[in-house]
Design goal:
Number of strands: 16
Largest sheet: 8 strands, mixed
Radius of gyration: 27 Å
Shape: elongated
Oligomer: single chain
Bound molecules: 4-amino-1,4-dioxobutan-2-aminium adenosine-5'-monophosphate, magnesium ion
Length: 462
């Protein structure tokens, strides 16, 4: 039997004497004439297990030759460690080199730049930093399901191939099996999508919200957690073309209920990661963002701030700062504005509500002023916008009028409008960007470094 114990479990043991098998990759080797030390890591935790091999053991020469990066299976006994840094170490008796690692291994002991590591995205999970990031990502995903499941929200799988534009922003990646060199044409000369695979024009979803709303109108409280795609040509450190989004949608909620849910949600994810990824966060605090732990600890108890868009613009205008993009009522907030509000002015997460209708999606509930909508964005230090949400327009006439103003065809959204025809009820929801959440939790400044294989304009390698 090859399967062994996880190194995380081994390092949690307190007593020497146990016979165990472990498998993993050598992070580093050091040896003298009599003895060899190999640090073995299996990805289960930040720390490696020290494996000690006597010169008399046939594994001595084999491990030395196999090199750093090699895969080993080690059987031995746990003994009290003589050296500093660990209580127990594994005194090897039988060692199998499963896969040697020659000297052209791209991961050398020196520190590599994140740019370089992106070119070897298939190997970077083996580094300390990416080990920490992807363990945090895993724990955050678990926390998200735990949060909603404990509160009775239904997990719904909305489609990935979609025929509607949920955000009405036209940033859709098309899905087609038509011959691009010679597509079928209508008599008028347009491409005839009736002959395409689905009998109509389709694309990858930008959001599961609209389908999510249909389930909220049956199950009350639901959430989605899945990939979304945006053909947005913005080459920034916080935009990816493929990213994961969590979209709760809740019936009988108004904007205040929605804000409360979002605050509880982000606090729960942060606390769960703090409670379960201590070693990883400590490492990231040392290497990536000094003060990360304190910033996250503050989220456990801090009350999130809340201002209207109009107040936010006033704060920006009064800030005395020169922004690249001058703030004035009506503009869409830019990253520099969002980060000023969260990092410098409020020094913590802040909800901005009631944006001008012109800069928000068609489905948001119109306020009685006729100018603003019941929108809320959550802005956080380091990232800026991490959540976008709103109370939804539940009045059929108002919604149809909004769609026409925006040149959207109500008949393209007939099933969505049916929700306002049959048993309409107030409801609200939001979308949390999963990658931006991981940036927030790890302090990593670039979205390309919190996704296993980032997809951004001009780049879809691996
Ligand atoms: O603000 P957005 O566009 O809102 C929606 O999609 C709504 N349908 C959500 C809802 O109400 N159910 O996107 C929500 C969040 C943003 O706040 C951001 O965190 C993330 O998704 N996001 C992106 N993350 C990475 N790359 C991109 N290109 C992103 N676009 C949005
Ligand atoms: Mg948004």
């Amino acid at each position: 039997m090859l399967k062994g114990m996880k190194i995380k479990e081994v390092l949690a043991l307190r007593e020497p004497g146990q016979q165990i098998t472990v498998n993993g990759w050598v992070r580093s080797v050091r040896d003298s004439k009599e003895i060899l030390f190999a640090m073995l890591n299996d990805g289960s935790c930040m720390d490696s297990l020290q494996v000690v091999v006597d010169a008399a053991n046939p594994g001595f020469k084999a491990v030395k030759q196999a090199g750093a990066g090699a895969a080993l299976s080690v059987h031995g006994v746990l003994v009290a460690s003589q050296g500093k840094g660990q209580a127990l170490e594994l005194k090897a008796d039988a060692i199998t080199v499963l896969g040697a690692c020659p000297e052209d291994y791209p991961l050398q002991k020196k520190r590599h730049s994140f740019e370089f590591l992106r070119t070897i995205a298939h190997l970077r999970p083996r580094t300390n930093t990416f080990g920490a990031i992807f363990r945090v990502r895993n724990t955050a995903a678990w926390a998200i399901h735990k949060f909603f499941q404990e509160r009775g929200f239904l997990y719904v799988h909305t489609p990935i191939i979609s025929s509607s534009d949920a955000e009405g922003a036209g940033q859709i990646f098309q899905v087609t099996t038509l011959d691009l060199a010679n597509p079928p044409r209508t008599p008028e000369g347009a491409i005839d999508y009736a002959q395409d695979f689905f009998g109509q024009k389709t694309g990858l979803t930008v959001s599961g919200q609209l389908e999510g709303e249909t389930f909220a109108m049956a199950f009350g409280e639901i959430y989605t957690f899945g990939p979304t795609f945006r053909a947005e040509n913005s080459n920034t450190a916080r935009h990816a073309s493929e990213f994961w989004m969590i979209e709760p949608e809740a019936c009988f909620y108004d904007l205040d209920d929605d804000v409360k849910l979002a605050e509880d949600f982000l606090r729960f994810i942060t606390a769960t990661v703090l409670d379960n990824c201590g070693d990883d966060l400590k490492f990231l605090d040392e290497r990536i963002e000094p003060g990360l732990l304190a910033r996250l600890e503050a989220v456990r108890s801090a009350k999130f701030n809340r201002v209207t868009y109009t107040q936010a613009i006033e704060i920006l205008e009064a800030s005395g700062k020169t922004f690249d993009y001058k703030p004035s009522w009506g503009i869409d907030l830019q990253t520099e504005h969002e980060r000023y509000l969260a990092e410098e002015h409020f020094k913590g997460p802040v909800f901005v509500t009631d944006y001008p209708k012109e800069i928000k999606a068609f489905y948001m509930k119109l306020n009685s002023d006729g100018k603003t909508v019941r929108a809320m964005d959550l802005l956080v230090p380091k990232v800026g916008e991490i959540i976008g949400g709103s109370q939804r327009e539940d009045n059929l006439e108002v919604l149809e009028a909004r769609m026409k103003e925006l040149h959207l065809k109500p008949e393209d959204y007939s099933w969505y409008l049916d929700l306002r025809r049959y048993g309409s009820a107030p409801h609200a929801g939001f979308g949390l960007g999963f990658e931006r959440t991981i940036m927030y939790l790890t302090g990593m400044p670039n979205i390309r470094d919190v996704v296993p294989y980032p997809r951004t304009p001009g780049s879809a390698e691996f």
